[in-house]
Amino acid sequence: MKEQIIFSMKAPYREDFQIKGYSFGKGMKSACILGPIRGNEVQQLYICSQLIKALRELEKNGCITNNKEILVIPCINYYSMNVGRKFWPVDNTDINRMFPGNEEESTSSRIASGLLKAIKDYSYGIQFASFYLNGEFVPHVRMMETGYQNTSLANLFGLPYVVVRKPQPIDTKTLNFNWQNEMTAAFSVYTNSNDQVDEKSAKQAVAAVLRFLTRMGLIKYESHSGYISHIILEEDLSNVSSMKSGIFKRLIETGQEVRYGQELGYVIDPFLGDVVETIVADTEGIVFFSHTEPLVNEGDIVYRLIHRLHE
Amino acid sequence: MIENVTKAALYVHENLVIRRNRICPEHGYEDRGRICVVTGAHGDELEGQFVCYELIRRINAEKEKLRGTVDIYPALNPLGMDTGVRTVPIMDMDLNHMFPGQKDGTMMDKVIASIVDSLKGAEVVIDVHASDTFVKEIPQARISEEFEDMMVPYAKQLNIDLIWINAATTVHESSLASSMCKLGVPALIMEMGLGNRINREYGEQVVDGILHLMHKLCLWEGEDIPVKEPRIIRNDDISFIRASESGIFMPLAENDTFVTKGTVLGEMIDPLLGEVIYQVKAKCDGRLFTLREHPLAYEGALIGRILKEEKEKSS
After folding, report:
1. pLDDT at B315
2. Which of A34, A52, A79, A305 could form a disulfide with A238 if both were Cys (CB 3.0 to 4.6 A apart)?
3. What is the total count of domains within chain A?
């Protein structure tokens, strides 16, 4: 394992900001794995640390393929993590909305530019990311429909689902979109947690990445074959919204199968304690996303269902 | 007439309400069209509050001269305004990066989609912003290159100093202005002043401009004050000054002044060592039209912008 500094910058009141990377093997820039760009992505940090631990062991045993280099950057935005902020602490900009970045522009744009410059030549890019909706997802691989996306490759992670998202204007500044435009086969891997460590899905994510690296011939590793992923277009997910606001009581876990008309949760009046809404499934299928916060606004998406899919 | 544009119940015993003040011509007068003035997308930008107040005050003072409908939205992000934060609280997302919204999306997506619906059919939409809390700006319009031909004729009437084509971050395609233009509704962004502050002079200047535009659109027959001829600029016309090292920026120049190449605009100081890290100097002659107000500056932070080759007009 070789430690390297990917990007550095001086700060007036803190130790220098340094994005560190850990590389395994030597030769062709084959796979790059990225951890948190946002300060609340603790699960993503944990997964990267466990991957580095696994890759160290594999390298010690001579299991990294010759002439292949794997780079893991366990954390980009630890400055925000250390002060309990989600975005860049000085100006609250989201680094994951600054790509491709520019080394002559703002601080976060320079960070984005410096990072992309360091990782754009890798053949495969894997980012442990988070979504703008707070809640729990079924572990999945997500990719943007840029024209360069390759769902067959995404299938090799062996996670239950691969989601293809049609880019919205807001997506064009993300790392995934711009990484794909640099011709890296870029994947975002989502587990079912962000600001808490979920051991089970973290292990699943580590196994998925090792499986992918094995299947791409970058490491020698015996792993379970995983799932044959189900490919979903994001626009085909069925949103279930709350009609009332209040305290949200979830009845169904992410990944469970539900039937049409099944009760999924309750909204409780926060003052009077009465159930003011029973949320029911408007289709049969698998719960892909669920709202996990205890409170809910009128109109919030509380579940996203994979329409007519069965276990 | 105060109207609720959209309403959604928040977690506990409160509604998020987007309100507008609709002012219509007096009974018996023709209504020739509608203009919308929106502001408060960013909770730390208050310049638009005075613009709303002053525009309503002046129209009401001569209401018999109004020939169209004026819709004024003081707070597109009321929770951000109330808490003084730029983004939408809890989501921590920039409202002006969420347009045009989605009718089957999150609560805020739905709220935004309702705002967009309410703006459809307007002759023009003016979205008033106030820079941010970091740098101070002179009154200007920002327009994307894509909609330059459509929007420059409107912007020229607004009594502003500059029309900046393609100031990328503010006219991003998920902004209100860009989304409305895509729907065929002329819309532009105005920027002026500084976050969390109100500059009365700038506010009066742009209200003169909005009334002039209304006059041009035959929506207003009240007093019409001659307006400034704005300079149309692009990124190539601007010298951007960014911090080459992190530190505390102490300005030595005033914003909206003319500087020459080498003029010291300020000093970047180190409070621990008691030293000047470096002097920030102008790289060209021109008009300093943006200057940093927030002292802490990391490498890359915007310190100022100079409009190249603009000479001070001799009196």
Report:
1. 41
2. A305
3. 2
